[in-house]
Amino acid sequence: MLYKRNEYFRYTFGEPCDATFRLIKNATATSEMEMSKKGNCKIIDISPNGLRIYTQFQISIDQLKQVEIQFVLDESPIQIIGEFVWTKRKNDAFEYGIRLMGDHESEKLITEELKARRHKEVEKKK
């Protein structure tokens, strides 16, 4: 198994997190970036650098490589662009691995939101 030294952690949700996505059609020098309508998905797991989603939509990741994901982990809405890495068919839906193309600030926000969410989950169990 390949060890990703720069990967901080991967948080797997007990109950997948609701999210929306919009596919991004690559822009050229003469055209603007085009985005699809919003689609619903569930986030299965997440790290500051990537996530795995589950959706009913079949996406041709060879043609549409980038995606904008919007979600809330605890309180702050997060909107970030990612790049499809892999796809896998699961029963009647599809799973996609996405590498997030954020900066240090977005990684920090994801980490802080996950910490706050986990803290609340632990408090509810007490």
Automatic annotation (TrEMBL):
Q: What is this protein called?
A: PilZ domain-containing protein
The residues covered by the PilZ domain are 39-110
GO MF: cyclic-di-GMP binding
Checking Pfam families in the record gives: PilZ
Superkingdom assignment = Bacteria
